Amino acid sequence: MKIHFVGHACIVAECPDTSILMDPWLFGKIFNDSWSLLPEPKFDQAMLDKVDYIWLSHEHPDHCHFPTLDSFPAEFKARVTVLFQDRDYTKVFGALRKIGYQRFKRLPHRVVVPLSDKPDATKVYCYHAGLMDSALAVLGQWQVVFNANDARISAGECKGILADVGHVDVLLNQFSLAAYAGFEPHEKYLPQRAKQILENVSSVHRALDVKVTIPFASFMYFSSLDNKYVNNFVNSARDAASYLTRHDQRAAVLYPGDTLEVGVERDSSRALAQFDQLPGVDERTYDPIESKTMPEIVAAYATLAAHMRDKYSMVLLRMLHRVTIRIPDLDKTVAFRLAEGGLVEIDNSTEPDLVINSQPLWFGLKFPFGFQTLGVSARFKLLRNFSNWKFHRILFSLNNGGIFLRPKYLLTAEMLSYVRTRLGGGLRQSIHYYRTSL
Fold first, then answer.
1. Are 149 and 23 in contact (CB under 8 A)?
2. Could you give all domains of the chain from N- to C-terminal order, each with its CATH number?
3. Within 10 Å of residue 352's Cβ, how many Cβ atoms?
4. In a 10 Å sphere around its CB, with 0-12 CB exposed, 13-18 middle and 19+ buried, how is residue 341 labelled?
5. Omega into 39 within 30° of 0, i.e. cis?
6. Contact 203, 155 (CB under 8 A)
C-alpha cells in the first residue's frame, strides 16, 4: 500500500486493487475565511483516473470541502463512490448529489467492510468518534493504515479498534492547534494546549502500537488579523517529529507531493527542510476584519433564540445565565439570555464575558455551526464566566448535531438509534467541551 500526501488532511491511499481519496481541501479559505492552506496542496489530476472512492471523515470544510469536490470532472463524480459514516449521511449525500455525485456507500460503526466481492479485496473500517468525527482504517492483505485525522480517540478506544482490525502499521494524526477556547492570557494557555496535542499523538501511537505516525491535518494557518496571534504557538511538523522521536516512536514527515510506501523506511529530512522554508508568521497574508451592523446581529440572534426555545425546554435554558459581549469594531457591548428576550445593547462600562468582533459574532448567531466555527477560528476572547459559556457551547454543539432535547424531538426512532450507537462518544466529547471549551 502507498500513501500519497496531497496537503493538510488530504491523502490518496493506493492499494493493489483500488485507490481512496480522503478529505480533499485543495484551495480557498474556510471557517468563515479564517483558515488558509500552508503549504499549498500538490495534486496530480491524473491520479483521479485511479481513484474509485472518496472518503469524507466529517462535515468540517477542511475535510468535506464542497468547492473542491465540485471542481472535479463530471465523469469522475459520476463514477466514484463516496464513503461516509452512516450518521447524518442524508444531508451530506443530498448536497453531493446536487453537484453531480451519484454513488454512495454508508459505513457503519466498527464494522470491517470489503470494497468488492473479491476474496483479497481491500477493506475499510470506520470508527465513529463523538458527535461528528470519524476515523478510517484501510485494510490490505497484510497492511493496515489508520487515518485518525481530527477524531479524539482515547487509549481505551484504541483497545477496541485493535480488537477489530488486528494491528495498525501506519497512523495519520492531527498534530497542531485547530481551535482555541479564547482563554486569556493566551500566552499561558496556548502553549499548554499545543503540548497536550503532541502528548495525544504520542499516546495514540503507543496505544495502537503502530510502526510509524505521519503528522498531518494541521497544514494551515490562522489567516485573519484577529486570529493571527495563534500562529505563534502552533506545533510545526518538526516539533511533532521531534516529540515522537524523544519518546522512541517513529515519525514519517511528508511534504505535499511525497509518497510513503507502507513498510519501507523513510528519511524525513528533505520534507522537514521544505517545511522550514515556508514563510514565517509575519510574512503571510492576513484578511482585514469585516464588520456587520447591529440590526444584522440582532436579527440573527432573534432567529437563533426562537429556534433554541422550540428545540430545548425552558427548564434547561433557564439554567444558562446571561452572556455579555464586547464588540470592539462597533464600540458596543451587548447581552443576551436564551430563556428571555432579544439581544440588547448595554453600557460599555459593563465588564464583558467575551470579546468578539461584529462579523464573527454575526456568523456565530446566523448559522447552526456558527459557534463551533467561532471556536475553530479562534476569533474571540473569553474573559470571565467560563462555566456559563462552556454550557452554551455544549448546547450549541448539540443543536448543530441535531440533538434536540425536547421529548417530541428526542424520542424518535432515528434519535434513539443514534443515542444507542454514539452516546458514549458524544458524552466523551461533551465532557471534553466542558473541560476545555474547544
1. yes
2. 2-283 (3.60.15.10), 294-436 (3.30.1050)
3. 21
4. exposed
5. yes
6. yes
pLDDT tens string 397-423: 889 878 888 888 877 666 666 565 555
How far apart are the C-alpha atoms of 421 and 159, rounded to whole Å? 18
Peptide bond between residue 185 and the one before it cis (omega within 30 degrees of 0): yes
What pLDDT, in 10s, does the model give residues 359-412? 999 999 999 999 999 999 999 999 999 999 999 999 998 898 788 888 888 776
Residue 433 has pLDDT above 90, yes or no: no
Question: Can you tell me whether residue 257 is helix, strand or coil?
Answer: coil
What is the pTM (predicted TM-score) of this model? 0.92
- SS3 state of residue 131: coil
The residues, any chain, with a CB within 8 Å of residue 67's CB and separated by 6 or more, are 27, 28
The HSE-up count of residue 55 (CA atoms within 13 Å, CB side) is 29
Q: Whose CA is closest to 130, among 107, 109, 111?
A: 109
Name residue 99's amino acid: I
Element (H, E) at 265: none
Which of 220, 216, 208, 219 lies closest to 260, judged by CA?
216
Cβ neighbourhood burial of 302 (10 Å; 0-12, 13-18, 19+) = middle
* Least confident window among 227-236, 344-353, 378-387, 409-418: 409-418
Q: What angle do CA 335, 337, 343 make, to 5 degrees?
A: 45
DSSP, collapsed to helix, strand or coil, labels residue 73 as: coil
